Amino acid sequence: MEVTLIEWIITLSVLSCGVYYYFVKNFNFWKSRGVAGPEPGFFFGNMKFLITGKESWTAFLRRIYQKYSDEPLVGIYAHREPVLIMKDLDLIQAVLIKDFGNFIDRGMKVDVHDVLSNNLFMLDPKKWRPLRMKLSPVFTSGKLRDMFYLLNECGNRVEKYLEKFDGQSVDMRDIAGKFATDVIGLCAFGVEANALEEEDSVFRKMGLHLLQSMASLKALLKMYLMDMLPTVYKFVGGLTAEREIQKFFIDLTRDTMEQREKMNITRHDFIDLLRSLKEEPNQIDDIELTDGVLAAQLFVFFFAGFETSSSTISNCLFELAMNHDIQDRLREEIERELGKSREITYEGIKRMKYLDMVVKETLRKYSPLPVLMRKSAEDYTFPGTNISIPGKTGILIPICAIHKDPNYYPDPEVFNPENFTDEAVQNRHPMAYLSFGDGPRNCIGARFGSIQTKIGIAKLLQNFAVDICDKTDKNYTLNNRAFMLQPKNGIVLKVTKLSS
Asked: Taking the model in full, what pTM does it have?
């Protein structure tokens, strides 16, 4: 039976209409609920510039936030799915803290082709809660005090490493990344990463490979397939898997545990905590503690530890190079605290008030993570409003935009540590600063990351001055393909050794 041209045209027209309807049928979702927002477009929703790499997540969120300056909530569409951008700080506090029980889920999907995605950051609420409870002890103040000598040792190494660049221009983002990688190697894996000493350090290579893979077109395709065509992704997603990264962390975790078992080594660190969980798997219900799942926890600690800390250190140095008055004041505090011994101690770092203010201001202006993600478990009406959302609605809390809101931070583009005096903090809404999130599902490694960052900055300023140079990108051009904040041209600064 022959099919005529007219029949083909009719068939294609019907299919086209079906596809079009599939993508646009939800586009009245926010308007029907009285929530303002930009008009969505076919296929992309409101994400066109993000998907095509013309806009970074930071720029995207700030643009929406500023355009709807008088709205407490803004409705957008990720392709065809309605997503809510939250602006009102009281409502944000309700989601993160008061009504946390309905917003435990980050709304992120575990990748069936990547066992490392079974980590604390990505897990669904049922698995996250017991695992978080078991992992928290390794990040207590006592544990950090016990590990401080390891962080200090890495600080001494970066000081020695920088001496070879005296009077030269160097990418401080790269150096801070090597320092942070050495710290994570020692404190999380109990092994020498040698990122500073060896140019071909496998740890540093893996970190760079990880960053590059996350900002690649392959990662974009993977995200699209997982969100829009999960059934297709289940069959073809293996083609996008980063096998080398998975193998590295699984082998490293398994081999390190086996070696400690064989040599009867105990360090009371992250690896030992995972060993204890593996030996008593009944401690965590409904979680099969395979080598892959254990490696996933170390993987997320590795990535979060080296990327956020190295980013904060280098961004801080960038601002100090642009603001020598702040750099000089901070160095004076460091020298005053260290005294004649010139040794950095745990108690000394805790006492450096201005250093704390400088680090927090860096995280305000350059938040490594641009957004917090949540998903409602059940139908929810926002307190004091008539706005309701059904269960499983995605929510975005735009950290980067809140941190640049002049209602909370006067002259937000100006680097001003005075934003974090005790008085300024007390007079500001607690949700106006969210670099580590807030509520029960905040960053588990916040204390560790803060101490690591402060040691790196203190060690550098104790012995070196930083300044801008011809190669410094003073405009801080962003890499639009990267989800996390990432300068496209690095952070190139001139370093000069100080006289003793």
From this structure: 0.94
Helix (H, G, I), strand (E, B) or coil at 24: helix
**DSSP label of 403:** T
Calpha distance 4→8 (Å, rounded): 6
User: What's the CA angle centered on 428, arms 422 and 433, to 5 degrees?
Assistant: 90
For β-strands 372-375 and 388-389, DSSP reports them as: unpaired
Helix ranges restricted to H, 446-485:
446-463
DSSP 268: -
Helix (H) or strand (E) holding 84: strand 81-86
pLDDT at residue 290 greater than cutoff 80: yes
Q: 3-state DSSP call for residue 496?
A: strand
Q: What is the mean pLDDT of the chain?
A: 91
472 CB-contact burial (10 Å; exposed 0-12 / middle 13-18 / buried 19+): buried
Q: What is the pLDDT of residues 464-477, one digit of tens each?
A: 999 999 999 999 99
Cα dihedral value 239, 244, 246, 249, nearest 10? -170
Which neighbouring-strand residues pair with 495? 168, 466
Q: H/E element holding 217?
A: helix 217-228
Rounded Cα distance, 426 and 410, in Å: 15
232 touches 225 (CB < 8 A): yes
- Residue that has been written with the tokens 């957004």 in this structure: 371
Worst-scoring range by mean pLDDT, 6-15, 30-39, 61-70, 276-285? 276-285
All domains in the chain, ordered by first residue: 33-497 (1.10.630.10)
| Sheet order of strands, 372-375 included | 73-78, 81-86, 394-397, 372-375
How far apart (Å, rounded) are the C-alpha atoms in residues 159 and 182?
13
| Helical spans, DSSP H, in 342-407 | 346-351, 353-365, 399-402
Confidence of residue 3 (pLDDT cuts 50, 70, 90): low
Contact 370, 61 (CB under 8 A): yes
> Are 124 and 105 contacting, i.e. CB atoms less than 8 angstroms apart?
yes
